[in-house]
Amino acid sequence: MKDRPLIGVTIGDPASVGPEITAKALKDESLYEICRPLVIGDGGVMRKAMELAGYKGDLHVVRDPGEGRYEPGAIDLYDLANVDVQKLRMGEVQAVAGRAAYEYIEKSIRLAQAKEIDAVATAPINKVAIKAAGLSFIGHTEMFGELTGSPSPLTMFQVENLKIFFLSRHLSLRQACDFVTRENVLKTLIESNKALKELGFAEPRIAVAGLNPHAGDNGLFGDEEAREITPAIQDAVNRGIKASGPISADSVFQMVLRGRFDAVLSLYHDQGHIASKVYDMERTVSVTAGLPFIRTSVDHGTAFDIAGKGVASAVSMVEAIRVAAEYAAITARN
User: Fold this and answer.
1) Which of 36, 41, 275, 303 keeps 20 to 30 A from 2, CA to CA?
2) What is the pLDDT of residue 142?
């Protein structure tokens, strides 16, 4: 059925578990019921990955997305042919692998911008390999933001009905605390509200986590809540946003899981990461909002220690593709 959304699946760093988990994920026939997955990578790398994954089907190379079969038993591949498999060293940082990973991402973005694919699901990349390739990007989100001209890409974690937005991402804890300002909290609440509406929530309910123990406990453990966070929440409410808090971080994530809120705004990287990964690390998916299209990703790294051994789990990759398909279908209806 051609009404299934077409999802571009980038294989990540070719020396990582990315190609293997991509091949393993596409053994799951249920994915083909909800989407048309198109792998974007290298033919030689994928053939090797299919052997590792025990994939018995065909590799169907296409020149454009319209040539794909998108049926179980064959992996449709947009082949960039940019890796010499004989020289590739699995599980090691290499400039050539970093460059290849970037080129898969770049191609996925160009295809999405041209409306040839509906969304993108990404396998992991290695920041050191990206740097070795002479690229200045910190990570996936920054690449997608710059290459699409999106000034404020927003990260949302999802695992089951737990959705987590982040005020900041890759900052030191000291810098992250300094980033908790009235202006920044309000800006992120506005962006989170917009993202949730695009994902199908008519009137999103967003809880804001506290920064300090017990959300400051009326100033006993810090004044950031009273000085910056509470005024930002009130500013958001005045704009018609259903924001609540700050709520103690040791309780707020459970409240979202129980349905009291639709999402939570985490005030720094580890605050939200710990909550989602303890709940279900394998099924946590990273969603990038604020782009012209949906992008999802596994929430784990390149796992160089097990790359090429055939033992990597594809659960997170399956979930990333599934969530991309679900949200692509929703945004297409909006």
Assistant:
1) 41
2) 86
Give the CA-trace dihedral at 305, 59, 298, 145, to 10 degrees: 110
The pLDDT value given to residue 3: 83
66/69 Cα distance (integer angstroms): 9
First to last CA, the chain: 21
Query: Do 72 and 187 fall into the same domain?
Result: no
Residue with tokens 């033919």: 43
pLDDT of residue 17: 96
234 and 301 inside one domain: no
Please tell me the total count of domains within the chain.
Answer: 2
pTM: 0.90
Is residue 124 domain-shared with residue 168, that is, in the same domain?
Answer: no
Pair 12, 73 in one domain: yes
Q: Rounded CA gap, 284 and 218, in Å?
A: 33
Mark whether 207 and 259 lie in a shared domain: yes
CATH code where residue 237 lies: 3.40.718.10
Tell me which residues of the chain have a pLDDT lower than 50. none
Distances (CA, A) of 166 to 105, 192, 277, 307: 23, 9, 15, 30
Strand partners, 163: 158
Query: Hey, what long-range contacts does 250-258 have (CB within 8 A, 24 or more apart)?
Result: 252/207, 252/208, 252/209, 252/210, 253/162, 253/164, 253/209, 253/279, 255/207, 256/161, 256/162, 256/163, 256/164, 256/207, 257/160, 257/161, 257/162
Residues in the chain: 334
Rounded (10°) angle between helices 18-25 and 315-333? 70
C-alpha 228/C-alpha 231 separation (Å) is 6
Token digits for 83?
Answer: 């890796």
- Is residue 279 located within the same domain as residue 297? no
Are 210 and 248 a contacting pair, CB within 8 Å? yes
Containing structural domain, residue 162: 155-287
Does 300 lie in the same domain as 243? no
The neighbour count for residue 67, using CB atoms within 10 Å, is 12
